[in-house]
Batch of 3 targets.
Target 1
Amino acid sequence: ATHLFAVDPRKIKSGEVPIEEVPYMQRSGGAWDGSDLKGNAKRRAVKKQEQGMYTAGKWQQSDKDYENGGKDKVMSFFSSFNSQKGDVKERAAKNKVSEDTQLWRDAGALNSKQAAKLKASKLGEEKKF
């Protein structure tokens, strides 16, 4: 992502990197909509926004699409949890485990037997000092 970059605090202090160009997650008290910016930084941000260079605080079409049902069509880490058939309580009862254990299984966690088997299979590769 070109809009995210590591920022050296010395470059901000010297003015080499304007504060409005710093990703909000790296600004003290930063807000995604730029509402944390004050004074000249706010004026520069508004000017850049009018020129289309700075999009903070404005929803893009992709944001609107995602909010209006697009989130159900997006592949994400969490979509695999939603694809399970039935609810957690039903699957836990069917598998004769607690709901907590079922959630761990859904997330792909190994049980103690699987972990021991995995550990045993790697023992041959272990270096001795």
Target 2
Amino acid sequence: RPLTKEQMEELIASLVAKYDATTGLGDDVLSLAKKPVDIAAIAHEIASLASARASLRDYANTLLPHADQALFYAQAGDTANCFRMAEALTRNLMDALPKRDPNSDLADLWERLEGAWEEGLRQSKRKQREGPKTLLRQAQAALTDGHGPIF
């Protein structure tokens, strides 16, 4: 069975994470792996969920794979793509979500997204951390009252 686009991206990120000068992985693969992931789908999916007045459970089910992929990029050492995906999820969710989650339907999504942020921050260089930390503080202020403690 052929690999999906996401599986191919994850495979390439894994190869690059293990790359050293002796593996001969090749500059083409390295440049492909460092290419920014397309995050337009995240914004589109969240906008579609918002316009359809989807349940919070639908948000979680639709967006969990993106949070998992962001975590995967962080674990593979690709903090740039991890942060791109995690930021797209966080910013778009801050704008689209209702202010309350009384049944904690988004708890799994927040947990996985938090894991991606934590791993990305852990693996990033100090200079790369300030922007994400500022966004996380903004998200906490905007969402914690209605969604419980996040990040």
Target 3
Amino acid sequence: ETGTAEAVARRFAKYAKQRGCSIRACTEMNDACDLPSQAAVAIVAFVATCGDGEIPGGALLFRDALNNFKAGDLSKHSFTVFALGDRSYAKFCEAGKFFDKKLEACGAKRVGEMGIGDACDEDGWETGYTA
């Protein structure tokens, strides 16, 4: 866990604020385990894949919470996911794919297709971020 996803998320939040968007928080995913009880939010999740398809430590509790949510629990929320990984690994962006599928399965409304940032691209994850 190198902090790349967190750095990308903070950069996104900075640019979103400059464009007049209201950013409530830029936190670890583990800080969002109570989504069903929160007012409607737009979730923009930046997720790195660690090791061989593993979910980073800052998202393990959120993974567990999502596994316990039921269909419709997140229906008042919207989301998009940007997954970061390295295509040289068999389970490329597996953590991002997991969260993308689970958020949708729990009823959150997709606002954009999952973005992919590949460390093997010429300029790393930047290629996917600007696409």
